Structures are given as structure tokens and as C-alpha cells.
Amino acid sequence: MKFQDTHDNPFGSSTTTPKHMISKVTLLAILVILILAITPLWYPLLSYHSSSLLKIKQKLKHTPPSSSHDDNSNLPSTYVERCDIFTGEWVPNPKAPYYTNNTCWAIHEHQNCMKYGRPDSEFMKWRWKPRDCDLPIFNPFQFLEIVKGKSMAFVGDSVGRNQMQSMICLLSRVEWPIDVSYGSDEYFKRWKYPSYNFTMATFWTPHLVRSKVGDPNGPSNTGLFNLYLDEYDEKWTTQIQEFDYIIVDGGHWFYRPMVFYERKRIVGCHFCLLENVPDLTMFYGYRKAFRTAFKAINGLEEFKGTVFLRTFAPSHFENGVWNKGGNCVRTKPFRSSEAQLEGTNLELYMIQLEEFKKAEKEGRKKGLKFKLLDTTQAMLLRPDGHPSRYGHWPHENVTLYNDCVHWCLPGPIDTWSDFFLQMLKMEGMRSAIS
């Protein structure tokens, strides 16, 4: 530590009589004592994002129920550390996976990579290691204790549903949920964990705003969609007010051709190839869709929960686009030095951050909490985690032949639950010391 010049008196007074001067040694001793006494009082004021060197550990009480198929000695530490958990590298984890495609019924067929013959298994044996701390592996007992009596909604596209199914599989070591859905629609499901009175639900809204198919084929044979960028998608906006946690996501559907409407009128499009309709690019629609979605949440009168934005998870098509030979055949993660967020991926990510910050500012006025579940960098480094051609039998005629968008289960997105639980624990720490 660099001290003031010895001519300066830390007590703010001065004297010209040497016999009244306090010795330099005494001054230094007093200063050190003051620093040691005052520093702990500043901990609650330190910013989470700017304090990668500050690590506060708190032992959380937890008593896991007995289970004949679970080895509690392998559960991760219950210590919580503060750091930037989203910056780091993938490192080997020989203990993974924590479930299999045979033990979890929640895996959708097109993400059941081992069932359909994927020959390698190393893609399941990695964990995320933040640069400045350790990220504990998801502890299902801890998680269910924290969310006891609460509810959580996944709002977005099929990658969001992929995330929910991963969490169901991870929680299966403790308890299986029961189906409490209001109907039979697979796009809108509700699951309840009776022992913990915890409910999770998924709301299918690939564009986040009201949309409909304008042409089932469209310019690229993937459909042309009409997006009403200033109108809420009431299939989810009228249902989420009761939830304690909302996890919002969106991305890959915005690559498809779209026509943009505002105030009931066409204002432009993305690759619609319609005469006299300006191409505003996908980024225009993406920004407006997130802005409207966040506006809908902030406008809910009774909502008092926490909103998480789960950031864009890049696809990994190589040697062509999805319908022209593109594939993802790598079997190991990238190092952070080997892949860079750029181009379209970077633009989509930055739009999310910008709209998130605006929504967070507005939400704060109402006492709402917005949190960034920043999975983009971690998932950019996982080209090995997609189903590729192992989401169906070879003879089946499917639309997405090589799936480099969704994620195998078990697989890399199990780490999203690691992130999420860590965020809940850090939030608990902040509440405890505030």
C-alpha cells in the first residue's frame, strides 16, 4: 500500500514543535489498525461486476435427503464465491454426466444423441471453470431448497425448452415432477415438484412478440413470418405474473424471413423479397422484439419476481449453412483463444445487452430485479455439444438434417443450471449482508 508523504498528518492538524509530534512508527501503526478495522465495513458496498478479486465465502446449510442411487460425497462444495462466473474455460470433468439418456425421460428425441448413435462421449465430460474462481457443479438438493414454494417460467424458443429439460434431468436425482399443465399443448407445459411446492413452466414464443405465419414456404422454404413488433404475445404475457423467476431467451428464429409490422402497418422486413418493402435486417426485428417483451414484463401490475435474460447461444454450422451441407462434427471444446464472438453473433448479443440495460433501469423504478444469465461466451466454445445428425435415425426425413442449434442431453447446457444456481446463491448473499 502506498502511504501519504510523511509530512502530511492523517488527523488533519499540524504543529511546528518537534516534541509534540507523534513518531512515524506510531502513525503507521494507527493507520494500519484503522484500515483493518474499516475495510470489512465496505464489503456490502463493493460491486459484484467490478470485484473479480473479492471472494466472499458463505457456508449454506443443507441436509440432502437420503437416496439409494445418489452418492452425496460427490456433491459439490456449498461455498459461494463472487467473481465473473461467465468468463473462463472448459476443463475436463471425469465425474460427468450426472444423468444419462436412459435415466431421464424428459429428453426430447432430437436431443437424445446417445440413443441415435453418437459414437463419442467426451462432449459430456467437461465443466466450466471461471477465470477467477470455481463454479460448483449443480447441486439438485440445494437448488430445490432455495426455490421451495416458488415458481419459474422459461419464456422463449426451443433452446429455452432444451434448458428446462436439462434442469428436469438434473433434478431427477432428488425428485421427478408431476405434470400440472393446463392443457395438452407440448409448447406450454407446467411441472410441479410436490415435496418442495416448486413449479416450472415453459411458454413457447420464438419471436417473443405476437407473430403468425404469412407464407408457410417463404423465400427460403422455412416460412415467412409476420411479426407485430409493438404487440405483446398474450399467450405468455397474460400467464407469467404469478411466477417468481422468469428466464427469457430468443435468437435463432430471427434468421428466418420476416415481415415487420408496427401500428398495424408494414414497416419493413428481413429477407422477405417483397416488392416495395425495405429490408431492415434481422437486427431491427430482434431489438424491437426484446424491447416489447421487456416492456410487457415491466408493465405487469402484480409481478414482483426476478427476470433473467439468458443470452444468445451461437450455433456452430461449418462448411455450409444448415440446409446446404453445414454440419458440426467437432468432438472437443474450443479454448477461449480459438474462438471469438464476432459478426452476427456479436451483433445479436450486443442488442440483447443494450435492451436488457434499458429494461433493468425501468424495472428498478418498480422494485423489479433483472439479472443477466450470460451464457454466450461459454457456449461459443462448445461446437462439440450439438446433436448434428444424431437427433434422428439415418433413414428419417427431417427438416433440420444436421442440428447445430440445439444441444445434446446430457451435454454442455447442463452448465446453465450451474450458472443459475450460483446466481441464486449470490443473490442470497447480497440479501443477507444488505
Automatic annotation (TrEMBL):
Occurrences of domain Trichome birefringence-like C-terminal (ranges): 135-423
Bilayer topology: Single-pass membrane protein
Main location: membrane
InterPro entries xref list: TBL, TBL_C, TBL_N
The Trichome birefringence-like N-terminal domain, residue ranges: 81-134
One GO cellular component term noted in the UniProt record for this chain: Golgi apparatus
Source domain of life: Eukaryota
GO molecular function: O-acetyltransferase activity
Subcellular location, record wording: Membrane
Keywords, comma-separated and alphabetical: Membrane, Signal-anchor, Transmembrane, Transmembrane helix
Membrane-spanning segments: 21-43
Similarity field: Belongs to the PC-esterase family. TBL subfamily.
Protein's recorded name: Trichome birefringence-like N-terminal domain-containing protein
